[in-house]
Amino acid sequence: MPEQVTRVTARSWRRPLDAGLRDAYLARLGWSAPPRPSVRTLVDLHAAQVRLVPYEVVWIALGETRSIEPLNSLRYLVAGRGGYCYHLNGALAVLLDWLGFDVHLRVGGTQGHADATAPGATGTHMVVEVHGLPTTANPGGRWLADAGLGDGLREPLPLVEGLHAAAPFRFGLRPSPTVPGGWRFDHDPGGAFAGMDFGPGEASIADFAEQHRRLSTAPTSGFVRTVTVARRDGDTIHELRGLAVQRISPGGEDCVYLTTRADYFAALADVFLLPLSDVERPRLSALWNRLREDHERYLLAQVAQ
């Protein structure tokens, strides 16, 4: 009993089991019954989440305000929406915990390509670690299970220093040079950001509250300025930034611009599995008008250059 009390106290993000919510989310991921915790289950759940649940900030452009309370995040996803790291990884952590995995949250911080130095574990990213699943290649049994990196992981990575092939990209893991005792995730040079550092201590949801507020509301935030959606389907990454749809696969990259409202919302529904069937028509119209105006400004800026 004392061991259980210590575990609950140390992991304040944990939530009491809601079997209905658990089963509804498992159903969205393709499971009809709760699976047993194992490496295979972890890999399959992770791959299903990034394939079926989009990384997206369309909700910001729609004028929605979201909590990062993990149970609310699960409800957003069960309702057919996606989210960004706080929602995707918060929901994943609670689901894995309910299934019996040894789960830990970490405070992370992303480094953009334009950032001269890594900012450290600033709270701009929520990280999930899963422990207690040793394999021959990963005798320590620790895994980075991160469904909130956009064009990042398809499957969890063994938390082992070195390079990890994950077509169409290759990732690196090493001790963090900026966070004592932490880890550094190096993204592929072709990825959307340079890397991410995360600390060794257990995180709470409160650790991310201020950055969530800033990232979802500040005019300078990239999530506010650019309406972004991403989804991984096997070795293929689909990204939608404004009206530009990019596909990255082992065979190469291609990019097309969506020119009509019908094409945009069809892409959201068919490519990114985000039909927005719960959103009223006036808000959809406002979203399309905003995207069209953003694209026109982008074209004018290109001509000016």
Verbal overview:
The protein is of the alpha+beta class and 305 residues long. The chain is built from 10 helices and 13 strands. The protein has helices at 2-10, 19-29, 39-52, 58-61, 70-78, 85-98, 209-217, 222-225, 261-270, 281-304, and strands at 55-56, 102-111, 125-131, 143-144, 157-158, 162-166, 169-175, 183-186, 195-198, 228-233, 236-241, 244-249, 252-257. The strands form 2 sheets. Strands 5-4-3-2-9-8-7-6 form an 8-stranded antiparallel β-sheet, covered by helices on one side.
User: Care to count the β-strands?
Assistant: 13
**Helix coverage percent:** 25-40%
Number of helices: 10
Query: Gyration radius, to the nearest Å?
Result: 19 Å
Low-confidence stretches: 1-9
Distance between the termini: 67 Å
Please identify the structural class as seen in this structure: alpha+beta
Which percent band covers the strand fraction? 15-25%
Average pLDDT reading: 95
* Sheet with the most strands: spatial strand order: 5-4-3-2-9-8-7-6
Largest sheet data: 8 strands, antiparallel
User: What would the principal axes of the Cα set say about the shape?
Assistant: globular
Order of helices and strands: HHHEHHHEEEEEEEEHHEEEEHH
